[in-house]
Write a structure and sequence with these properties.
The protein is mostly helical. It has helices spanning 2-30, 40-74, 83-90. Among the domains are: 1-31; 60-97, no CATH class. The mean pLDDT is 77.
């Protein structure tokens, strides 16, 4: 009787493993795994978020310095001739800077 149990142990283990694999496959089919964080979709989302943040920075900078760009385009200079002093002074930077092309 001991030899019969030993001989049936291997086929029973193989059958049990097969039944387990079928059940696990059926269970996972109903509950798909979440996508990994390092997938192409995650990279595209991160790239899109960085692009939106960069556009906001550029839009804010242009809004703050729009007057400077308009004055420089028309050649208007205020005060003692230093266009940058006015702009940088409004941003909290009181150091004078030389502007290439302006006297």
């Amino acid at each position: 009787m001991g030899d019969v149990l030993l001989a049936l142990c291997i086929p029973l283990t193989v059958c049990a493993g097969g039944i387990y694999a079928v059940c696990e496959s059926w269970w996972r089919r109903g509950r798909p795994a979440t996508p990994p964080p390092y997938s192409h979709a995650a990279a595209r989302l991160a790239e899109r978020e960085m692009l939106v943040a960069a556009e906001e920075v550029v839009a804010e900078a242009y809004a703050r310095l729009a007057a400077f760009y308009e004055e420089a385009a028309h050649g208007h200079v205020h005060g003692d001739g230093d266009v940058h002093a006015q702009v940088h002074g409004s941003l909290g930077d009181n150091r004078r800077r030389e502007v290439p092309g302006h006297v």
